[in-house]
Amino acid sequence: MTQKAIGVDQIASGKDGVMNLGERLNAQDTALTQAQTDLNTVITANETEIARINEAVMAMSSAPVTTPVFNDVETYAVQAVDLTAGMATTVTIPNGKSYKVGKGNLMVLRNNVIQRGSFAEASETTVSFDADYLLEGDELTFIIGKPTKLDYNTAITYYAGGLDEGKIETVTYTGDIERAITYTYTAEGKINAETIVEDGITTTKTYTYSGGKITGIHAVVA
Hints:
The chain folds into 2 domains: about 40-65 and about 150-220, Lipocalin, CATH 2.40.128; about 70-145, no CATH class. Helices cover about 25% and strands about 35% of the residues. It contains 1 helix and 13 strands; from the N terminus they run H-E-E-E-E-E-E-E-E-E-E-E-E-E. It has one helix at about 10-60, and strands at about 70-75, 90, 105-110, 115, 120, 125-130, 140-145, 150-160, 170-175, 180-185, 190-200, 200-210, 215-220. Strands 8-9-10-11-12-13 form a 6-stranded antiparallel beta sheet, covered by helices on one side. The mean pLDDT is about 80.
């Protein structure tokens, strides 16, 4: 087989091609490095935004009751059978109502006068009055509200995948507060809905936005 001779011009051209290839590879390395830098910037910004969202969620969900909210009132007329001379009188709150002992959510009135120091919180359903303090016919009023002294734990779960990965999904309270809050988010990463379940009541709040700012909240209690 006859081999063709390689001319001087071809050799020179080949050298230029190899040199240009090195330059092109260097340019690709630079572009890849910049792309990685840009990606890291986006990731950092996204993580920062998620952290801000989570902080806002926790601020919304972590407000315990700090003042009494009275939601049950029961009355009881003291009977002769309730009284024993020289002994404390224990009265059961009517209609199966209960309160949390020592948590500041029970107020007791005797004949419309607030009682202090004359009774003890015996159990979640009973109150014990001092010996010989009550009289037959006394009207006792029990006002029960949410606790003002709280001891509770909070557990938080996060979305594990999808567009909401890393954002808070649920905040669950146990102890003196029994509450579960679930969050969903819009495609833009803002809170779409907040569902609160507490004391058998479900409250759903749906948020609306305009121009990136919150403009309204629609709440449904069921």
